[in-house]
Amino acid sequence: MERRYIQCDRDKCTGCLICEFACSASKEGSFDLERSRIHVIQPTPSMIAVAVCQFCRNSPCIKACPRDALSRDEATHTLKLEKARCAGCGWCIEVCPFGAITLDESTKSVIMCDLCLDHPQPRCIEVCPQKALRLYVSKRKQSREPTGG
Amino acid sequence: MHSYWGKCLIIDLTAQKSEVRELPQSLLRNYLGGVGLGTRLLLEWAKPGTDALSPDNPLIFASSGLAGTMAPASGNHAVVTKSPLSGFVSDSVSSGHWSLSLKRAGYDAVVITGAASSPVYVFVDNEIVHFHKADHLIGQGSFQTAEAIRKHTGDDRVQVASIGPGGENMVRYACINDSYCRATRGGAGAVMGSKRLKAIAIRGTRAISAYDLRGVERASIDLYARAQAETASGHKNPRTPDNLLPINRLDALPTRNFQQSSFEQANITEEYLAANHLVKIIACPTCPAACEHLYQVVDGGPEVALDYESLAALGPLCGIDSVPAILKAVELCQFHGMDTVSTGNSIAWAMESFEKGLLTKEDTQGINLSFGNPEALVAIVESIGKRNGIGNLLAEGTKRASAKLGRGSERWAMHSKGLELAGYDPRTMKSRALRFAVGLEIQSNDCFHCGDEDIHSSSSTSLSNQEREDTAAVSNSLMICGLIHSCFSDFLSEAAHLYTLATGIHISPAELKQAGERINNLKKTLNIREGWRRSDDWLPPRLFKDPITSGKAKGAVLSDKELQAMIEGYYQSRGWTIEGLIPTVKLKALGMDDILEMAKGSWHGASLHTV
Predict the structure, then answer these.
(1) Could you give the angle at which helices B509-529 and B491-503 cross, rounded to 10 degrees?
(2) Is B209 in Cβ contact with A14 (below 8 Å)?
(3) Which residue in the set B180, B207, B227 is minimally distant from A129, CB to CB?
(4) DSSP character for B47?
C-alpha cells in the first residue's frame, strides 16, 4: 500500500486540541492528552504545528529499536508494535525526527499513530472543526525495504 | 467523582507551603466551579473588610467540571479575589491552555494566600509544588516570563500565568496574562503583585475521566458542527473589532471620554485589520469558534490580541483613529499586563482634565495630552505601567485619580463602584445602564449582538437583566465560554445534559438555572458583607447631567428616575428588598443555609437583611 500520513494545514489550524481529545477518547477511552497519538505544538501562540507519525520510508524508529519490537506492516504501510517486546527504553522516541512517538508511563511501552485503520478515516481528521487535517497519500513509488530511505 | 477532582490546592506564600483540601460534592454541585466555586471559596478565605492589596486577600483560581473534557470552549478558569478597584468581588474569566493544565494537574481550584518577602514564582508540577525565586523575572512581560520559566523547568509544555510590570507596580487594574487570554478586568494582577508572586507555572499531565465519555464526545461534536455551520453562514463572532461600526451607527460608541456617542473618524473594520495587520487566528482548547485574532503593529513585531472593547477604549474613547497607535497601546498594555478598558478610560479622563486645564504640561511631563494625540496615548500607557509621573496617578483608576485631583473632575470619571465602564454608552443603550449600575459580573463574556437587545428602551430590562446575569453565572461557572452560546439551541438544558454526562451528577435545567441565581446571590452577599450600599448601584454623574454633544443622539441624557425604576424593578425580580438587600428567606430558598451559618459565626450577619 502507498505511504499515507496525517498532514496539517498550519494556516487553518487554530490549536484547539480537539484532535488530541478525540484521539485519546478513541484510543484510550479517556480525555488523556498525554496519550494522544497526535500532538499540537505551539511554541508561540501564532506558531502552530502538529506532531504525528509520518511513516517515514527509512523508519529510523525501527532501526533504533534494540529489541526489534517495531516493524512495518507492509499491507497498510503503518508501524506495528509488539508490546511484549517493548521495554519503553525510548530509543525510537530519541530518533524520531517528528517527535511523534510518546512513552506511556503506565504500561512502559510506546504509542504512535496507527491511522485508525479500524475506522473509515482517522478520528482526528473527522473531528477537526477547521478542516485543517487531511490524509496525505504519497505519490512516490514505494520502496520495498524499510531501510531504503 | 468524575470530571471533578474534589481537590483544592492551598498555597501559603508567607510560609512557602502548600496543602491539598477536599471539596465536597455538595459544594461543587451547588456552585458548579469557576466563578461560583471561586466566590464561595473567597467568602470562606477572605476575612470581612480585608484590604484588596493586603496579604490577607486570597487570590483564587477556579476550574470547573467540564474543563478538561471535550465540551466546547470549556477549558476556562475564573480568577476570583477582592478587587483593588471596587473593593467588591472581582470575578474575571480567562481561557487558554493554562486553564486546561490547572485541571490536568489534578485540582479544581487553587487558593493563594499570604505574601512572599521577595519575588517568587510557583511551579505546580502535578502533585508537587515548588517555590522559586523570581528576581530575574522582574520587569519582564508575560511572554518573556513564560519563556524563561519554560527554559528553567526544561519543558515546553509548562503553562504560565504571570503579571507584567503593571502588576508588580500594583496598577489597580493590572491583569494576569496566560498567553493572550487574560483575566483582564478588576485588577487581579495587582493582587498578585501585592503578594510578590510573579507567575504560576503549571505542568498538568493527568487524564480527565468522564461519567459517560462517549456521551460527552457525541454531544460536543454535535455542538462543534453547529458552531461551524454558524461560521459558514456568515455569523460573525461578537467579540471582534467589527462591532465598532454598527455600535457607532447606533450612537452608542463612547467617544472622547463619553462627551459624544459617535466617532466621526470611526473607519476601522475587520477587513482593514485583516488586510494590514492580521497574523493568525487561534482558539482556546476545545473551542470550534476560534475568536482570538492576533495582529501585528509592524511585521515581525510582537503580536497583540484585539477585541472590540479594547479597540473602543484605546481608540474612540481617547479620540484616536490611528490603528497603529491603538495596536501599539494594546501591545504595551499586554506587556505591562494591564486591562485595556480601564487603561483607556483612565487616559480619556486625563485627556479631558488636560483640555479643561486641570492638568497642565507640567503635570504630564511635557506631553500634550489632548484627545486624538496618538503619541500621547502610547507614552501614557507606558508611564502607567511604570507608574512614572502622571502614570502614577492614572494607575489608581479613575475613581481614586479624580478624588485626588478634585476640582470637579469626578464628574467625568466614568466608573461604577470604581470599575471603569466598557465600550457602550448607557445614555443610548439603556439596557447597559442597568447592567453597569448593578453589575454583578465584572467582565461580560457575552458581547453585543445587533438585534439581540432592545437597546434604546428600558422597559422589561430589569427582568431580562436578572435572567441574563443568571445565565452568565451558569456559563462562567460551568466554564462554557459565552461567545459560543449562540450554537446551543437551548443553553440551560444542553448545558445541564453535558454536565450530567461529564460528572455523573444529575442536574436538571431548572436546577442549573437556580445554581446561577444562587451564585449571583452569593456574590451579592459577599459584596454586602464588604460594605456595599444602595448608593453604590449607580452611574457616573456625566450620564445624567451632560447631554451628548453631537451626532444623532445629540442632547440625550439618562434620566435618574428611569434608572431608579430599572434598578428597583431589578431588585424586585431578584426578590431583594427595595434597598437591594437579600432577605434571609431568599437565601434559605436557594439552599444557602451554610452561608447563613457563616454569617452568624464569623461576620455576625450584621449586613444581611433579616426578614
Answers:
(1) 90
(2) no
(3) B227
(4) P
Model confidence pTM above 0.90: yes
B35 and B473 Cβ atoms separated by less than 8 Å:
yes
Question: With an 8 Å Cβ cutoff, are A15 and B281 in contact?
Answer: no
CA nearest B232 in A: which residue?
A: A130
Contact with chain B for residue A107, Cβ under 8 A: no
**For B44-87, how does the pLDDT look when each residue is reduced to its tens digit (9 = 90+)?**
999 999 999 999 999 999 999 999 999 999 988 999 999 999 99
Query: Nearest residue on chain B to A36, judged by CA atoms?
Result: B207
Instruction: Sort strands A4-8 and A133-137 into parallel, antiparallel or unpaired.
Output: antiparallel
Condensed to tens digits (0 to 9), the pLDDT of residues B174-197 reads 999 987 767 789 999 999 999 999
- pLDDT tens string A47-82: 999 999 999 999 999 999 999 999 999 899 999 999
Distance between CA atoms of B20 and B4, rounded to whole angstroms? 14
Contact between chains at A17 and B179 (C-beta distance less than 8 A): no
Question: Cβ neighbours of residue B479 under 8 Å, at least 6 residues apart?
Answer: B33, B34, B63, B64, B66, B67, B74, B75, B76, B77, B78, B93, B99
Distances from the Cα of B441 to the Cα of B92, B324, B446, B472, angstroms:
8, 32, 11, 8
A106 near B CB under 8 A: no
Kindly list the residues from chain A whose CB atom is less than 8 angstroms away from the CB atom of residue B155.
none
Give the E-state strand segments of B39-139 in sequence order.
59-62, 76-82, 89-95, 109-113, 120-125, 128-133
Q: What's the ipTM?
A: 0.92
Q: Looking at CA atoms only, how far is residue B149 from chain A in angstroms? A: 13
